[in-house]
Design goal:
Length: 693
């Protein structure tokens, strides 16, 4: 038998068995290489797309040497308008040429709309021609400089002005609290609930609230600003204002359709107001077996916002009487309406009694769940007390002022001084007298004797601006029957009153402003025709004339000429009309204003924010309403909105997709290898079984 020669490869004998193993190894290596190439190819394609999508364009520069004066020529940008879309970077080529060799190239870019300020960091910014630069919106001025190579002290320069034009976009409101809580008896002032808005176009912005009553915004108008800040404000809120007030905060820039709105809910929480109880002065009773001055009768005056006054029967009174040893005694009672009626006799103990009169209200029903957090109370019943002394004696002696400050009873003072006075008092019957302070016989202050420290009472006072001359300040003490007093004679040098920024012309004086009003105006009422209003006597002849003049200026014929009114109130209650807004204006008159008349008007209790939207009409389309409308390219992006829509990532540029594909391929390869190994093992097992047979 002829024996076959075995073939060797790199010293490895290729038997039939070894050939199968070699074939398997080659197959596995080929699959791995193929999968690796596919995986790499996917990422390489992705990288290629990334690179080619944003690859900068390189430009060559051809320079010509021309004999004559050296110069720099800016070939880009040119003196013209460049148009960009909202959200774009304002990137332009900066290309320059020169007829001589130059070095130390630098440029400066100036924002001419905002006073010619340098654009950071582009002031003397070093560069190599030719590159790109990022301009600013509106007017730009570019200055390019360089030094000549043959003489570094010689600098050449060139400049160009150009304009960046971008489509106008709506203003946008910043974050605002959806729910606002304020307590009854309080008010919203500047700083309590601020909010902001932004407008990259720097238009005239009007910020407001709708409907416009009870709550207002301040300030309302802004000019030439990107970011503005305003506040939700109100006057003093009382029982009539309790409840929920849904409101719309808005901002618009006077371009058609350019508005942004936010819905909020202002909640005025009812509180339990503390009862107000009068001050009861000290009383002294002399005992006489017959006759007058032996009965103490007093009706306690109390007022409570929720429960009324003393006589309504809704309040609960209580009384606590203590003798000189602070032992509680049962001398007399108080009625359900606050009446104390007590007559002394010969068996009544002579003493000075300290009496506490207290009153409790009933609280409020159904307090708001946030009441304790916002207002610091839970709405339950509140008790308040007042105290006084009652002296029962068979012989009353007068109280005395034993010391006083200033000791000089005749003083020269300035109206700008903060004046300080005090007295020390004494009562031989151990009663603690009450003190009353007067200026020119006008009552100023009451000091309860029980609150005196070491029998001393204090008083401070400052005369109003412009007040001068001779004035009398008086301190009077009383035990209820007898009095003592001390008077200071004050010669006051007046101090000038503050002058407002608005002063009269031609030698006229300024206007005294002691309280700066803060005006809040309701929504305008429905527009009324001027002709029928004049005929009915609603409109005066003078008002008719100026309103029709305004209509003519705004190209409204007499049949379309109307007027509307509103009411404006001072939230600070300054009792002045200083800077009060107009409460009447002309308007476009229609017989029956609706949400389909293509006119911005007021009807059904409020005013439209734009033509036929907002207020009594459906909400206006905005760039924050989560709806694709008003020509937007996506939901609240693109089109008129001040930001672009996110770019869609192509399939082969999405790395997550690439990772998934690669992972799936690896899993398939592993499964294929496992399958091949199992098949080979089965073949080997079958071959060995056949040999054994």
């Amino acid at each position: 038998m002829v024996r076959k020669k075995s073939v060797s490869l790199f010293g490895f004998k290729l038997t039939k068995k070894n050939k199968n193993k070699l074939l398997l190894i080659s197959l596995i290596i080929s699959i791995l290489l193929l999968s690796a190439n596919v995986f790499v190819l996917i990422f390489k394609v992705s990288d290629f797309i990334n690179l080619t999508s944003f690859a900068p364009v390189t430009t060559g520069v051809v320079m010509f040497a021309i004999e004559g004066q050296a110069f720099i020529n800016i070939t880009s940008p040119l003196n013209k308008t460049y148009n960009f879309n909202v959200g774009d970077f304002y990137t332009l080529d900066l290309n320059v040429t020169s007829n001589t060799a130059l070095t130390n190239w630098r440029y400066s870019l100036y924002d001419m709309r905002h006073g010619g300020i340098p654009v950071v960091p582009y002031e003397n910014f070093a560069f190599f021609p030719n590159i790109t630069l990022n301009a600013v919106r509106w007017n730009n001025r570019l200055v390019v400089e360089a030094d000549t190579l043959d003489d570094l002290s010689e600098t050449l320069s060139a400049s160009v002005s150009f304009f960046i034009n971008v489509s106008n976009s709506p203003p946008i409101l910043g974050p605002i609290n959806d729910s606002i809580f304020v307590c009854e008896g309080d008010f919203l002032e500047i700083g309590d609930y601020p909010f902001n808005a932004s407008d990259p176009d720097e238009d005239h912005l009007l910020v407001g609230i709708s409907p416009q009553d009870t709550f207002f915004v301040n300030p309302e108008n802004f000019y030439d600003l990107i970011n503005v800040n305003s506040n939700i404000v109100s006057g003093l809120l009382d029982k009539n204002d309790i409840g929920s007030f849904p409101r719309t905060i808005f901002v618009y820039d006077h371009y058609p359709g350019h508005i942004d709105t936010k819905l909020i809910d202002i909640n005025v929480l009812e509180i339990n107001n503390i009862p107000t109880i009068e001050d009861i002065t000290a009383e002294t009773l002399e005992i006489w077996t017959i006759g007058d001055n032996s009965t103490f009768y007093h009706e306690t005056q109390v007022y409570d916002t929720e429960d009324g006054n003393s006589t309504d029967g809704n309040l609960v009174f209580s009384i606590f009487i203590f003798d000189a040893n602070r032992t509680q005694v049962n001398l007399f009672n108080i009625s359900s309406t606050g009446v104390m009626n007590f007559s002394v006799n010969s068996s009544t103990s002579l003493a000075v009694y300290e009496i506490d009169v207290c009153v409790s209200d009933t609280g409020i029903l159904n307090p708001h769940e946030n009441l304790s957090i916002v207002c610091g109370q839970d709405g339950s019943s509140v008790r308040v007390c007042n105290n006084f002394t009652l002296t029962i004696t068979d012989k009353n002696r007068a109280p005395t002022i034993t010391d006083y400050y200033p000791s000089n009873l005749s003083l020269n003072v300035s109206g700008s001084d903060d004046l300080y006075f005090n007295i020390t008092k004494y009562d031989p019957d151990a009663t603690v007298p009450d003190t009353f302070w007067y200026v020119d016989n006008s009552f100023m202050e009451y000091d309860n004797g029980l609150n005196s420290r070491n029998n001393t009472d204090e008083f401070t006072y400052k005369f109003p601006c412009g007040v001068g001359g001779i004035h009398i300040l008086k301190a009077e003490i009383t035990d209820g029957l007898l009095n003592d007093s001390v008077n200071w004679l004050l010669e006051v040098a007046p101090h000038p009153c503050p002058i407002s920024s608005k002063s009269g012309g031609g030698g006229g004086g300024g206007t005294l402003i002691t309280c700066i009003p803060e005006w809040g105006c309701d929504d305008w009422r429905v527009c009324q025709g001027v002709e029928p209003s004049l005929e009915l006597g609603i409109l005066s002849g003078g008002d008719f004339r100026w309103i029709t003049e305004d209509c003519e200026i705004n190209f409204l014929t007499i049949d379309l000429c109307g007027f509307q009114i509103r009411s404006c109130d001072d939230l600070k209650n300054c009792s002045t009309t200083y800077n009060k807004p107009n409460e009447t204006q002309y308007c476009y008159y229609v017989d029956d204003p609706t949400c389909e008349d293509h006119i911005k008007n007021c009807h059904h209790g409020s005013c439209e924010l734009l033509i036929d939207c907002g207020g009594p009409c459906p909400a206006c389309a905005t760039c924050s309403d989560n709806i694709r409308n008003q020509g937007e390219q996506g939901v609240d992006c693109g089109g008129p909105c001040p930001w672009k829509c996110p770019e869609k990532i192509p399939f082969l540029k999405n790395k997550i997709v690439l990772y998934i594909i690669g992972s799936v391929l690896l899993i398939l390869i592993i499964l294929l290898i496992i399958y091949i190994i199992r098949v080979l093992k089965q073949k080997k097992s079958i071959g060995e079984s056949l040999k054994s047979e």
